């Protein structure tokens, strides 16, 4: 789509959906708040969604009960409250990304394992990076500043809210990476690969796939569908697969740690790649479970009869 057409479309959407654009203006205003005010707002937000609207209370409780059957009712209650507090912080931090300065970034974000990631990406013409909804995954877009090649950030487009989608895309791309819609991820990746231009493809690979997916596996004690795209791209390109672990160091302070998950994916079965990814996620989640996105309806689908469960 040409730049002129995009501008005309935005103008049209502005008059069709003024409420959505007003929300984006509010988010931009929130993004300008100093961190002290941001977390004051988060504290108020916490009491509102926990005690007043009880945001997805049943979904969160059900997910936690299945994930930790050994925990008592009281322990689940306390864990749910800790999740609510984290959720409020990370939601506002994600908005803050839009106005996060480079100086603030250096004070609040650190990376480890990037030398190995850079080394293999340059040597093997790229790498696949599997992240998940744990801690502040949005700020990891700043990884681009640590890379010696291009970062592609695969995302799900918000088709019913052009204004919000544009806001999020601008925030993610501010450090120089390229946001790519999930449906175009494989095509764009192979284009870079064909040009011999090293590229790191980052995917939040724990998204809930359709029930028709061919990849079903146990995840946190429940059957879950996974998108086959990440492992298929890895096997097709034989690029190394890395895992992102976001570690919370304090309120609004994170370390993003990158470890090699699979060196040569073409040499092993795609199911083995998925299993390694799931095992790593579970290991991290069980350490600090309140930092996972339990409000997400991750396990909403049922495995159809005849589809095998990956062991």
Radius of gyration: 20 Å
Major beta sheet summary: 7 strands, mixed
Q: Given the structure, what is the number of helices?
A: 11
Task: Indicate the proportion of strand residues.
Answer: 15-25%
Choose one word for the global shape. globular
Query: Helices and strands, in N-to-C order?
Result: HHHHHHEHEEHEHEEEHEEHE
Distance between the termini: 44 Å
Helicity level: 40-55%
Structure, described:
The protein is an alpha/beta fold and 311 residues long. The protein has one domain (3-302). Helices cover 47% and strands 18% of the residues. It has helices spanning 3-16, 18-31, 35-52, 57-67, 73-96, 102-108, 114-123, 162-173, 185-194, 229-237, 270-287, and strands at 109-112, 127-131, 150-155, 178-181, 199-204, 215-219, 222-226, 241-250, 253-262, 309-310. A hairpin with a 2-residue loop joins strand 8 (241-250) and strand 9 (253-262). Helix 2 packs across helix 5 and helix 2 (18-31) runs parallel beside helix 8. Its main location: membrane. It is found in: Cell inner membrane. One of its GO terms (biological process) is glycolipid biosynthetic process.
């Amino acid at each position: 789509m040409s730049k002129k057409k995009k501008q005309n479309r935005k103008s049209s959407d502005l008059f069709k959906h003024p409420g959505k654009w007003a929300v984006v203006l509010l988010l931009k205003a929130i993004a300008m708040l100093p961190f002290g005010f941001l977390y004051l707002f988060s504290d108020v937000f916490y009491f509102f969604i926990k005690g007043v609207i009880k945001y997805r209370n049943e979904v969160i409780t059900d997910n936690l009960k299945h994930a930790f059957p050994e925990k008592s009712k009281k322990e689940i209650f306390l864990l749910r409250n800790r999740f609510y507090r984290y959720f409020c912080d990370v939601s506002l931090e994600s908005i803050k990304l839009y106005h996060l300065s480079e100086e603030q970034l250096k004070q609040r974000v650190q990376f480890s394992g990037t030398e190995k990631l850079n080394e293999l990406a340059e040597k093997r013409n790229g790498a696949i990076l599997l992240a998940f909804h744990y801690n502040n995954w949005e700020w990891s877009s700043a990884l681009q500043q640590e890379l010696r090649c291009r970062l592609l950030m695969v995302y799900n487009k918000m088709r019913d809210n052009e204004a919000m989608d544009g806001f999020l895309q601008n925030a993610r791309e501010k450090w120089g990476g390229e946001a790519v819609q999930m449906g175009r991820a494989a095509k764009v990746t192979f284009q870079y690969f064909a040009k011999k231009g090293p590229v790191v493809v980052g995917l939040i690979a724990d998204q809930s796939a359709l029930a028709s997916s061919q990849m079903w596996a146990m995840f946190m004690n429940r059957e879950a569908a996974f998108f086959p795209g990440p492992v298929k791209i890895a096997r097709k390109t034989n690029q190394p697969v890395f895992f992102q672990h976001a570690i919370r160091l304090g309120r609004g302070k994170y370390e993003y740690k990158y470890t090699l998950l699979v060196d040569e994916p073409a040499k092993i079965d795609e199911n083995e790649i998925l299993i390694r990814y799931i095992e790593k996620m579970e290991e991290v989640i069980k350490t600090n479970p309140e930092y996972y996105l339990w409000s997400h309806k991750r396990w909403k689908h049922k495995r159809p009869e005849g589809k095998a469960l990956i062991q």
